[in-house]
Amino acid sequence: MSDFWNVPWAFVAVAVAIVISAAPFGFARSTTARRKALDRLAKSVNLAVPTARDEDERIGARLATRERCIAIGGGLGIVAAILASFFVPGFGDYGFASMGVFILALVGVAAGAAVSALSTTRDLPSDVPRIARLTTPTVRDYLPRLESVSATVAVALAVVATVAAIVTATTTMDANIGAFALPIVITVLAVASLVGVALVSRRIVERGQRAGSTLELAWDDAIRSTALRDLIGVPLILGFAGVLVPMVVLIEDVPLRQPYTSADNIVAIVAMGVVGLVVLIGLVVAIVSVASRPQQYYRRRLWPLPERTATAGTGSVR
């Protein structure tokens, strides 16, 4: 029974709510609810709602598939976190299980977004003309530079922080390197995810775009951009965790001694300072990112026309 309480159920509930909120279109049951969800999404990505029935059905089908994949992936991630709380030794040490729930949920969401983006390109009916663009977009056209650079920097800092923590603990404190098993795993996963996301993102962008109107092509761009931003969140949060977790291990394992200027105390103080600094920088970057409206980044790169002026067959891009 004690294992039951090793699971951070409150955080599990919050993670479930976040996954559901990330897929409003997929969870909408009635036509009215789906229309409201589509309207909110259209405002978020700065596009017009499709008015032609066939176009609306094609875009709606892609959105529904994407959000079902997100929900399934996020749900599997949460289940994995619950199982890890029961069966993985050390998963709940220092309260890391709470962080693990959100990390695994995010990984699941990103995996679902990738599967959807790689598998939902649909053929157009034979009587629908195919719209093409003159230039070929790249990953930079869909992914804000702030997010890609932040992920790379976070992963690099995770490597530095983990190595520095291990060296400090084993040389200054005579600690067992086994205490850093979780930080090492997180850092390795952060590096692997950064490489994997770069490869998958390129695959997504290289896939053909089959659109019957300019508006449908713009929606395809919006869906791609959202998928790439979901993916880059994985190395970003793993890198962030890879900096914090080794510092927390250092803080928890340092025995505070007299005098307060002893080497162990200085290590703990420096580690706490690093944690505070990383959290502060993370908040600043998050605020700047949100203020830049990253969900409309692709629009500024690929559709740099004045709002409400770009016509698109059955409707305007906005």
From TrEMBL:
TM ranges: 6-28, 69-88, 94-118, 149-171, 177-200, 231-251, 266-291
Superkingdom, taxonomy of origin: Bacteria
This protein's UniProt keywords: Membrane, Transmembrane, Transmembrane helix
Name of the protein: Uncharacterized protein
UniProt entry tagged with the keyword Transmembrane helix: yes
